[in-house]
Design a protein that fits this description.
The structure is a single chain. The two termini are about 30 Å apart. It contains 5 helices and 5 strands, in the order βββαβαβααα. It is an alpha/beta fold. The chain is globular. Strand 1 (about 1-10) and strand 2 (about 10-20) form a beta hairpin. It has a 5-stranded mixed beta sheet, with helices on both faces.
Length: about 150
């Protein structure tokens, strides 16, 4: 089983998947659409990737404001996650994605990717950062539970 991470945007969805051991996240692709509310093909592509990569859980980035308030984009991400859960039958988690796009852009700058090419990668890298944060938290919780059982 793998976990899929999604960075939901108004016209794109960045996609990342974990390795089978749930240790690392890798950016996979960016699903693009012409209109914000036209999601049928987006859902179909995600469902195909779920089958191809044997995904058992999905994490969707929740774009909160810096003060943790939820705006229109957060509501849209929640609705997207709810529909995705109903369509796939998989558990869908929401993950605070504040600053993931900034971190993705910074990583690409440090890697020497030219500014005009960054938009080609930023959404899948942001999805990988969302997923990696979630994987790290799962691992920390598992270790904490193991430590509690050993005592």
């Amino acid at each position: 089983m793998r976990i899929m991470g999604l960075d939901f945007g108004s016209r794109t969805v960045g996609v990342a998947v974990s390795d089978p051991l749930l240790i690392t996240a890798q950016g996979l692709e960016i699903i693009r659409r012409k209109e914000e509310n036209k999601l049928r093909q987006t859902y179909a592509r995600i469902e195909a990737l779920v089958l191809e990569y044997e995904v058992g859980e999905i994490v969707v980035g929740l774009p909160l404001h810096m003060n943790a308030d939820q705006g229109d984009r957060a509501q849209a991400a929640r609705e997207f996650a709810d529909r995705l859960e109903r369509r796939t039958g998989l558990p869908v988690q929401l993950w605070d994605e504040r600053l993931t796009t900034v971190a993705a852009d910074r990583a690409m700058m440090e890697a020497g990717i030219r500014r005009e090419h960054r938009r080609d990668y930023v959404d899948s890298i942001a999805a990988a950062l969302i997923l990696q944060g979630y994987l790290d938290l799962r691992r920390e919780r598992a270790h904490s539970q193991e430590d509690g059982v050993k005592q």
